[in-house]
Amino acid sequence: MGPLHKMPDRDIRLDACRGIALWFVFINHIPGNICSWLTLSHYGFSDTTEVFMFVSGLTCTMAYGHVFRSAGTWATICHTVRRIWEIYSAFLLLTLFLVVAVHWMDADLADEANVAIVLQKPGEALSRAAILQYRPVNTDVLPTFVLFHLLFAPWLLLLLRWPNAALAASALLYGLVQTYGWNFRGWPTNDWYFNPFAWQFLVTIGGWWAVVGHGRLAPFVMSRPAIMLSAAYLIWSLAVTMSWINPALELVVPQFLKALVYPIDKSDLDPLRLLHFLALAVCVANLAPAHWSVMRSRMLLGAVRCGENSLEIYCVGVLLSLAAYLVLRTISDGMLAQVIVSGTGIALLTVFATLLTGFAGLAAPRIRLL
């Protein structure tokens, strides 16, 4: 296969899935939120992180692949460098905003937001943040994406020329991480929460699917055996996760199975989490076809807009989740209050994403004043 693989056109399902994932991330970032039962995290081994990583790998490969085919290698490198700067700047600004927000809203949140170290050692903490070693709460995914984009141009070239070799190399690295636990060190303690050596595999799977996978595996993904196997795995995963909160169900899970399955590690993308996401993806692909009219309805338009502005919505969502938690702590943490706060946050994210999309259309072509 040459470098000019025919890749699929942009699929509105990708933005819709990414937008819904961002809503779920916001909900899950509010501690003790009853609305988290509406998200994926309680019903299986994987959660919205897997959705976000896979869709990002797929959409980035499609976008940068078109740039590579039309403008060449250097243009692709320039696009990835610009995106690195955008994500890196967003991470640093979000870190500063979290520190300022905690300082002004409630200093008691400093430990929970993991910004107490900044208030104690501002110089060292901000220096560590600049080299991606220090990360406040809920910002861990951004440094991982900075690293992914840093390596994206050479990775994309390999993927376009030798897609199967790229997938095999990625799988080998993933397997070595599961065996030896390779990771980057964080500061002041612990490793990177989203281990780049492990999560790169899911990003690569998304990219491989965009390049050749959709043509080769689509018949299998849509086949009855694939659907039945995926559904069976999802049901088994649901039963196991329900046993974590129901003592009666926990007694039913055999001891040998617990020893075999646990722990299901998120940081290193446990194989059971990976399989759960792939099974979920198979079912979604069959239940929501590409030209499904619901995807273009008003009901999902807000999710599509959020998916189109994923970086900005993620950052704003982190700040909103902190504000929501403070509201619940100071006013009321009842079930109704949690529902109202969660719904208001999603509405604000949707309005903000819609405004961003509108501004982007009005601002093109951009006028540079400096």
TrEMBL record:
Membrane-crossing ranges are: 20-39, 51-72, 84-105, 141-160, 167-185, 197-214, 226-245, 272-290, 311-328, 340-364
Spell out the InterPro entries in the cross-references. UCP028704_OpgC
PANTHER family, A to Z: BLL4819 PROTEIN
UniProtKB keywords: Membrane, Transmembrane, Transmembrane helix
In its keyword annotation, does this UniProt entry include Transmembrane helix? yes
Q: What is this protein called?
A: OpgC protein
Which lineage do the record's taxonomy fields give for this organism?
Bacteria, Pseudomonadati, Pseudomonadota, Alphaproteobacteria, Hyphomicrobiales
